[in-house]
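Sample entry (405 residues):
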Amino acid sequence: MSPQIKPVADAPAEPARAPLWHRTIGLVLQIALPVLLAYGAYKAQDYILASAPVAERGARDRVARLVEVLPAAPAPISPRIEAWGEVTAAETLIVRPEIAGTIVWTHPDLGKGGYLPEGEVVARLDDTDLKLAVQQAEAEVAEIDARILIEQGQGEIGKRELTRLSRNLTDTQRALVLREPQMAQLSAERIAAEAALEQARNAIEKTSVKVPFNALVVTEQVAPGTMLTQGAEAAELVSADRFNVTVAVPAQQLSHIEISPETRVEILVDGGGTRAGEILRVGSGLTEVGRMAELIVAVPDPMARLPENAGNPPLLLGSFVTVKIDGRTVDDAVELDRRFLRDGGTVWVMNAEDTLEIRTVSIAWRGPDSVVIDGGLNAGDRIVTSRLSSFTEGMALRVREDSGA
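Predicted structure, serialized as tokens:
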């Protein structure tokens, strides 16, 4: 049987191709349409943004800084100069006997810290031998006086004998007849004897040791039975009427101090209380340590013994005290705490426009805690006392409504 041959189906016919211009237009549309859509969207967005309302930004107001102020009130000011001082004796007396002798009596208050009034006898030496010397000198004067009487009698006899003698005697012979040389010798001997008597009497007076002023006893090395040699130190006394305080101040501050008894000086005593002092003078040189000038300040009745000083603290020799001195008055000045002085020579001022003004001032005096300003500030100026971490001149300031500034 022979294979059967199936008839082959007809192949599909190819579609007819579009004309070329159709294909060209389609391609152009495929490319141009997205571009047109994108452009339209961009224009629409631009239109929307352009037509949308815009919020205008207003100018930002400056915030005024809150500060505290102090009104300037120029007035006469006397700066207070504060310094350290040492209490020293105004007068010191070293008691040394002028003669040698044994002490037989001492004053009950002749001891360390004792008080001895002016003219008081503080010690007596044994004067037995000196009294004998006075008696001997008195006897010698009396013996010479007796011899003078004898010679005066011999002179009267000589006058009568001259009438019987030759008138051709020389002057020397006449003087011998009248006993004139003998009288001259006796007169000289009497003067010497009187001097010896006076010397013996003075020696007796020197056995009583007296103080020439009201004194305080610093040291003493005497007691009954002590043998003193001439010139040996027996005691040290200081004047009880006045002590001095030697005050060390910077030399440049002397121009601010009036060296006058009228200058007010206040001395602060350790343990409490104050005493008034009086400036006497300026020391002649500078101290070796610190090159400071020295003021000598007197304090009367330092131990407060007088009724008018009752209750005042005593000053002790060698103690260190704080001294406050009123300086020369500066007219139309403002005293300001040193904390409010900026950069060593400027002051912050809140001016009439309520802004910060950095003002340069003239400083008459600088103290440890304050300064005295004599130029650059006017009455009523508001001095800024607040500390500002950041600042610029012209910045706005304000104060609390209840501050009264």
